[in-house]
TrEMBL record:
It comes from Vanrija albida. Keywords: Signal. Residues 365-567 form the Putative 5'-nucleotidase C-terminal domain. This is Calcineurin-like phosphoesterase domain-containing protein. Residues 39-270 form the Calcineurin-like phosphoesterase domain. InterPro entries: 5'-Nucleotdase_C_sf, 5_nucleotidase/apyrase, Calcineurin-like_PHP, Metallo-depent_PP-like, Nucleosidase_C, Pesterase_C1039. It comes from the Eukaryota.
Length: 607
């Protein structure tokens, strides 16, 4: 049974009616959830994928549930929690913006999508870096928080915005700094919402490093009294050298050695889990509404011996089969009025935005990372070698040129079948413009190589930790690459996938998806999968094919504005005598933004 979205593109996958008649069959979970005294459902990095994944190329059908069906699931889970006499809390760790037609069509569409998101009541939400690239996005969060959109539960413990109050500019928290509340079972919770030490935010926004936050008087005051548990939700990784939770966790532990601490992270897009000690657990629930994270825990009883708590986690594939299995419902009993309202509001918004009208039909799948850069079916190769050279046109500049951009501007695969504005914004949501200067062709090529050698500076969660595996995209890519390499190695050694089959040959995985190795006990994935192929040969920057011109000929060098600081740094590394600055650049193909080049190409080449 596919989710609602799968049907929309059921004809697309093979372009014939057979695909319509045989929609993808999703595996059914086999292990009930390990409920505890307190339970959590966690989302993060949804990036506007509220209509779910709508294509039939695997592993997309795994994630075909939309936010409406997730809301129905959450409501049934809340009802189950009440029946069991336990708590169920919903948390979200940020990055609602940038990533689908709903949120990336315009600032107004992002507001509309967030209003639909807010129809499902969350217990705690945190802000992500994608809410801070543009001042207006953060201002929207601030203004809607003032109007009560998240009912005081959107927490921005270390993020401020400068706004005008009574004719004066003042820096104030974007939303609430913390929340103290009681659960339905009467447990006292102290909660914070934290962002990593993000540097690439817009003007008039401030992010305080978590290390500094942990020393703030108001923070120490807020944690002074022991609640029944602490709840830390934040847009940052859960573990490893990159973890920025330690200052906050350590400050809490210094005062409260045995109070349970539940941490929900994000930003890295991976499924991950770690226990900092035997009364804490940190979970990262993936990205793009692909995964719903579940965490459960026992809580200390009246006679607390200070011993280990029973803490568990599960990563649920976000689809209706998963939701109905875990709530004991079926198609007739599953959908709740709130869930239905959300699904139809999302469909209506998509219709108003006109994001489902196809530009053309893609002849075959292109993948973001299944193939190396340079492979004809890589999305990065497609944009660098075909799309930008063909559709980036400046009427006044017709001579030879080299185009350089950051690969991070591309966020997803391009699937065979109809290609619409939603698909376009999914693969390329950002509004980066193009600028050009004049340089010898050989220098531009060397600068491009240097940019990839140095890596993308804006991927770093903290500039102080440049030498550690701190790049969010890298963490996600390494995670996928490890899954694939392990699978390939096992296959070469003649082993089959029994190791992944939860010990039973009849439960052998047969669908592509995530195969998670994390640092918590037992198996985290709800459904065993075969990992998605992944090539480690990826790049941070892409370049169009060099022009047919002598190496020393001076050509137009066109740079995407988001990559500009890395470009200039690389120029000065390659040629320390260079005086090149941003002032030496002029707009190129003015009015053309990177989020519109795929559609232009699709209309011409894939019609
Ligand atoms: N205007 C922008 C903003 C961001 N990017 C890319 O996104 C990366 C951050 O995304 P996460 O989901 O990892 O937070 C950033 O490093 C850029 O690669 C962009 O291209 N243009």
């Amino acid at each position: 049974a596919p989710g609602p979205g799968a049907a929309r593109h059921a004809l697309d996958a093979d372009g014939d009616a057979a695909a319509w008649r045989s929609p993808p069959v999703l595996p059914v979970p086999t292990r009930p959830l390990p409920w505890g005294d307190v339970n959590f459902l966690a989302t993060s990095d949804t990036h506007g994928w509220l209509r779910g994944h709508q294509h039939n190329t695997w592993p997309e059908p795994n994630y075909s549930g939309d936010f409406g069906t997730f809301a129905s699931f959450a409501e049934h889970m809340r009802a189950q929690a009440d029946e069991r006499g336990v708590d169920l809390l919903l948390v979200d760790a940020g990055d609602h913006h940038d990533g689908s037609g709903l949120v990336s069509t315009s600032p107004a569409s992002a507001v509309a999508a967030d209003n639909i998101f807010a129809q499902l009541t969350y217990d705690v939400l945190a802000i992500g870096n994608h809410e801070l690239y543009k001042y207006e996005s953060a201002l929207d969060v601030y203004e809607h928080n003032q109007k009560g959109r998240w009912a005081g539960r959107y927490l921005t413990s270390n993020v401020n915005i400068t706004v005008e109050e009574r004719g004066r500019a003042v820096s104030v928290p974007v939303a609430e700094r913390f929340a103290k509340f009681e659960t339905r079972q009467g447990r006292r919770v102290t909660a914070f919402g934290v962002l990593f030490d993000f540097k690439a935010h817009d003007r008039n926004l401030t992010v305080q490093a978590p290390t500094k936050l942990a020393r703030e008087a108001w923070f120490l005051d807020a944690i002074a009294e022991a609640p029944d548990f602490f709840l830390l939700v934040g847009h940052m990784p859960g573990r490893g050298l990159t973890s920025e939770w330690s200052p906050l966790f350590d400050a809490i532990r210094a005062l409260h050695p045995t109070v349970p601490v539940f941490v929900f992270g994000g930003h890295t897009h991976v499924r991950d889990c770690v226990q900092y000690d035997d009364r804490s657990i940190a979970l990262v629930p993936g990205r793009y509404l692909e995964t719903i994270g579940f965490v459960s825990s026992s809580l200390p009883g009246a006679e607390d011996d200070g011993g280990a708590l029973d803490m568990n986690r599960r990563y649920l594939d976000a689809n209706d089969v998963t939701y109905q299995y875990h709530t004991g419902t079926d198609e007739d009993t599953f959908h709740t009025p709130v869930g239905r309202n959300i699904s139809s509001a999302l469909a209506q918004l998509a219709q108003e935005l006109q994001i489902d009208i196809p530009f053309g039909t893609v002849p075959h799948d292109y993948f973001l990372a299944r193939h190396p850069y340079g492979h004809p079916r890589s999305v990065l190769t497609l944009i660098a070698e075909k799309i930008l050279p063909e559709v980036l046109e400046d009427q006044k500049r017709r001579g030879p040129r080299i185009i350089i951009g950051n690969a991070g501007t591309l966020r997803f695969d391009v699937f065979k079948g109809p290609f619409d504005r939603n698909d376009e914004l999914t693969v390329s949501p950002f509004t980066s413009a193009f600028l050009y200067t004049r340089l010898p062709a050989f220098l531009a090529t060397e600068v491009f190589a240097e940019m990839n050698r140095a890596g993308a500076s804006k991927l770093l969660p903290t500039t102080a930790r440049e030498d550690v595996e701190a790049r969010a995209t890298r963490i996600y890519n390494d995670w996928l690459a490890d899954q694939w390499d392990e699978h390939v190695a096992a296959t070469l050694l003649g082993a089959d996938d029994d190791a992944l089959a939860f010990g039973s040959p009849d439960k052998k995985p047969h669908t592509l998806g995530y195969v998670t190795r994390d640092a918590c006990k037992g198996r985290g994935d709800d459904i065993p999968h075969i990992p998605v192929p992944f090539s480690r040969d990826q790049v941070d920057f892409i370049m169009s094919p060099p022009p047919d011109a002598p190496d020393d000929e001076v050509v137009d060098v066109v740079v995407m504005d988001f990559a500009m600081d890395d470009f200039l740094t690389a120029v000065h590394t390659v040629d320390p005598t260079s005086k090149l600055t941003l002032d030496d650049f002029e707009p190129y193909a003015e009015g053309t933004l990177v989020n519109a080049v795929f559609g232009k190409y699709a209309s011409r080449e894939w019609e």
